[in-house]
Design a protein that fits this description.
about 250 residues; 13-stranded antiparallel beta sheet
Amino acid sequence: MKVKLIFLFVVFYLLSLLSSLPADKLARFIPADTGISLAAVSGSLWQGQAGQLNYKKQFQLQHIDWEIDWFALARLQLKVHIAFNNGVNALSGKGALIFAFSGIALENFILDSSAAELLAYIDLPVPLQLEGDLSLIIKEAAQGDPYCRVLDGYLLWKDAAINSEMGSVDLNSARIDLSCDQGQLVGDLQQSSEELTTTANVRLKEQRAYQLRGLLKAGEQLDPAIKDALSWIGRKNQSGETVLVLNGRL
């Protein structure tokens, strides 16, 4: 017990020293090999702001605020409340990021983005245009083996639509409920519109192996070219739904 109290005292003392240092001076000690750079930094380690964060000159966050939760230190956790906003109708988010001996965790994390903006970071084999807005809500998530220990959240795609060379599909809205099963990431998709209805289960297994099982049902208003293409994806069941069975590795 005495050793633990001494350890906590030393941790609090060191953090109190660090928290009094200007954040812009501390930012200079970020290792170059991390690919992370900060600009327009102000405040302190305890509570501060940054005008911009760049990661490997490929990903950027703007107008970043952070604040350390001192009460979490008593549980030997570093809990940081963060928020960022890349501008009107652009990527924004807020929530709590936790560093502990058991790994990294998230609490009450919300991320909003347009589908088109997110597509810029994804390398797709065929050209696509996405419409609508995405909202990722993570109530609770914790790192585990191989991927997660806890995951409770969902991804919502509002006013969703896909445009391709073959045609367009109005999806209306789509929701993926996110969970963790024995360390594997699991997503349950529900989507329904007059053109297409989709139910699917996606599972990310060990060594980045994925498994997808689902059903697609074409509506009367679906573009004929898209409807014909469904026959390439999989067989039809007795209800006329296209059966999705995909296995692979990311």
